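Reviewers asked in the last cycle whether our approach scales beyond single polypeptides. To address this, we selected a multi-component target totalling 1046 residues and predicted its structure end to end. The input consisted of the following lines:
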Amino acid sequence: MAYTLLGKDFTPPDLHAKVTGSAKYAEDFRADGMVFLKIFASPVPHGRVTSIDSEAVKRMPGVVGVLLAHEIKQPSDAGHAILTDYPVFAGQPIFAVAAMTEQQAEDAIQAATVAIDPLPFCIDPLESLRPDGPNANVGGNVANRKDVPLQEIKWTGKDFAKAGDDTLPMGQPAQEWSYGDLEAGFAKAAAVVEESFVSAANAHHAMEPRSCAAYWENGKCHVWGSTQSSSFAVPSLAKYVGISPADVVLVSEYCGGGFGGKAYSYPLMALPALMSKKLNGRPVMMRVSRDEEFYNGSARAGFQGWVKIGFAGDGRVVALDSYIVQDNGSTTGFWDFQNFGMAASVVLQPEAMRFRGIPVLTNTPPKGAQRGPGENQTANILEPLLDKGARALGIDRLAIRLANAPGGGPNGAIGPDRLPLTSAYLREALEQGAAAFDYSQRVKRSGRQRNGKVRSVGIGQAYHAAGYNGWDGMVRITPDGKLHIHTGVGNLGTYSYAATSRVAAEVLGYDWSNTVIERGGTLKAMPFNIGQFGSNTSFTMTRTNYAAAMDARQKLLEIGAMMLGGAADDYELRNERVVARDGSASITFAQAAEKAIALGGKYAGHDVDPELRELTKAAAQMIAGTGLIGVAKDKLPKNGIVPALVAAFIEIELDPETGKVDIVDYLGIADVGQVLHPQGLDAQIRGGAVMGFGLAATERYIYDPAYARPNAKGYYQAKPPTYLDVPAELATLAVEGAHDPQNPVGAKGIGEPVQGAASAAYLSAVSDALGGYTFNRVPVVADMIINAAANLPQSHLPLQTNCQ
Amino acid sequence: MSEDAPKRAAELGIPEFPPDPADDFEWVPATRQVAGDLPEPPLIDWRTTSSSRRAFLRGVVCSGVAVSASAHLFTVRPSEARAAVRGVERLITLNINGKARRVDVPPSETLAQTIRYRLGLTGTKIGCNRAECGACTVLADDVPIYSCSTLTHQVRGKAITTVEGVAEPDGTLHPVQQAFIDELGPQCGFCTPGQVMSAVGLLKKNPAPTVDQARRALSGNLCRCGAYHHYLAGVMRAAGRA
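The resulting structure, written as structure tokens, was:
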């Protein structure tokens, strides 16, 4: 379908502020009388605080308040505590000090005497599963947010002995599912690949640390915070602070990077508010340092795993068996391990499959969703194994992927229940990408040496579920004729808050210059929207904005009929006017807005759908009577899982003597259905690829096993890619002809698999450069490449974690 | 599309909403966080070491890690000598964005602190505060520097330019800023002021850089969103116009 706005580039309205420095991030706000908060961070990975000499702290110069863990209500989950007497990871906040200056707060922290009794700790999940292994929490060693209560699971000595040193032991899982006849699948397989592997944990390391400030006024708690989700964060923040969501005033105009780590609210975000409450509402600023961000800023879960894949002669996956041991961190974490099963079931569409998994607690920082949580680890592990299968079968590496990739639209299924996918064009992504990349020619020279360096080609594929539904949208037409699109989706930097808002303008036929996006805080009257995470903004928010605009459209038509006679059906919208279909009469949107105010009721936002969320109703109330209000819940049908799918092609040059890998060329091709914002899509494909190259090559946790202390906290140690690690240009494409039938404009999101496809392609190419060497470990760092090229043993044990 | 379809989705077990993390918890006073009935442990003060070797080692470890665990934004270990030194503020004149600014600055204060917290120019960002990320980049006599790792007293007499000072007085954007908009350079935007300053510094020195020269000039500016392609495209677009 031809659109006026969708599929065309535009300048997002916040861009000017970003390049001029006028964009206000949480730490850029100031208030009179503001004091500064510092935390005392646990020096031990697991322990019990037995005493804090808080009186000595209070006597330090400039100190105005000390906040201890027992003074506040907080989550029962130890790792999610705002402050704690029971630290479960080094760096966890134990108590907080507020002082007139930041230096005084810091001095007071340093002056504190804290007695802590250390408890046994654990940083390797497999160690914790041993019969006599340590538990990372006194309540157990296994837990996950999604359907795994805190419990103790120990495997038997026999489980470990049977596996040996090179293979993942596989004792009792916490979760398990299967479909199809696995045994029969393997029996008929022409080739079987079976490997154990490790995928390292790595920190999010958003550029903006999660600094935050708060004050109280007239019973309301005002918070300047950094979050990916402006409205979705409000209820949970309210819960952390212990008040009603209606009493939270959140300002979050910009979020300096999140990648899942600031998906909504988080414990630290409540601390300034709680301190401020103790100080009778005085503004409190908490500047978060880079180290504090490492400890409290979330991380991707690590995997120790095993997979066995059976291929038919043509490359079709006839059976897939898998087991994931997840390093869950110190809290209930995120369900990356479950997503391994889901992602494998989508990308490979195995005829029969079994997934088993266990999330194990470790005394490392809380793990959270990081861009493609689980799905991207899956891509990194499975794609080089597909190459191995192709070699065993003597078929092309593209052919083995084409034999399995879902394509052609609403085809393919996911998970044990084989739920339908709304639309899948992964096959087309591979085909169109291969043609654009000239894969068939490049692959012929893959593996060739020149001047001591090896050129090789790799392919990657990745998936993420990309669409929720059922959220609320709200638009307003004011008497000046302008369209205000109210969105609570957040401003992570993808610009999808703006791209999806354009759907409302498209529906109403607005000139884009006549619209205003209302965003960035509860004072902007935000409807309750999905957060900006999970690759779902494009699918979900186009639906909500469509629903709100359709509501406004109907009201415009009704007002046209009221003012000019006849029925609503006799009118249409044209050039920001309500026009009689026969062209005989019309009113402007501005006149309709004035009439809506005069009419009140549903037209002006006084009466709204009772099914709307409470926050949406409150937002509508804020702007009721100021214009024509379109406000609606997304009740459009959805009959499947929305898959975001990406294929990637890469050519690299590898130096076997130094282990250095140069990326020669890269192409990411995304199945996004209808493209909303081409430039924004390009930025996501490229940015995701850069982050993916870090995931594949450099980024990882390193922990000292003796003291459970991190050795890769800073950027120079955690190693996200720099300008010099990636090519100056990265190519992008969107699959031609893709369209999601369950989105009113055919769109779906893409933010996460753009990373996993890139990292998997990189790993596929590195293996190919080394003659098909399977590292079974991510990241593949330079010394691993040197060892592999020189036929030397690797310096890590096969299942060792937190080490390379 | 039929009206009853959402029900069908729910029946199929297809999630409509992601779980709210705050719903996962039982909300309790903090004292109940410690699960289980552990025997009350003996009190060990990690700041003082007892005679046992084990406790001594533990004490050493805890003290050492406490230093790194609390490496806060502006950590200065308290000592009388340091306190005395940092307490002496001196009124100095800085040339910031073409204007003379009189400001009281102690000797230990970094330029990033002065710019952001004394002069209110919050465009300059602090991402790491230890010369790793480049978000704090400003120009000193047209040379890009990390303001988080430069003492304010060191730049007396130099012309400092921050991101607020590169546009024309009438608001016309610098060609680098305009090009970053045109090429959709920023994503989250937190590193953008630093990228702008490095690019402006490059073009002052080399108005027509090659892509590789631009890449090297900006390589001290980390972008976690990975927007390097777009920033470089911006620099090349701005080249020749600056």
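Chain B touches chain A through 108 residues (CB under 8 Å). We regard this as preliminary and will revisit it once experimental data from Aim 1 are available.
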